[in-house]
Amino acid sequence: MIKGIGMDLIELDRIKTSMEKNKKIADRILTKKEKEVFLQLQNNHRKAEFLAGRFAAKEAFAKAAGTGIGKLSFQHIEILPGVFGAPEIRAKGYESVNIFVSITHSREYAAAQVVMEDQT
């Protein structure tokens, strides 16, 4: 049974500006393992896409959970590439829930959708 659905959309320029102004923005949004992936990316545009996609996915997760960011931290939610490269999401306190995530990018935006489902 579906427990929650969330989606989020963010402008890439907003993330690029944040990255220029605040060198620690990636530390705020990304977990340690996510940051390892982020640092391997080739250029700032790809880094902005990655960071924006993770930001949107974590916001979408918080919406699906019904809590919003605040009760949950960005650090409680981790999105890493799976075996075939598609993003897989895990969140502290939600181990008994199936969580599905989709992240997409365009020239101007990153968007994400999350669906939460009972494992029973």
UniProtKB/TrEMBL annotation:
InterPro entries: 4-PPantetheinyl_Trfase_dom, 4-PPantetheinyl_Trfase_dom_sf, ACPS, Ppantetheine-prot_Trfase_dom. Its EC number is 2.7.8.7. The gene is acpS. This is Holo-[acyl-carrier-protein] synthase. It is found in: Cytoplasm. Transfers the 4'-phosphopantetheine moiety from coenzyme A to a Ser of acyl-carrier-protein. Mg(2+) binds at D8, E59. Belongs to the P-Pant transferase superfamily. AcpS family.
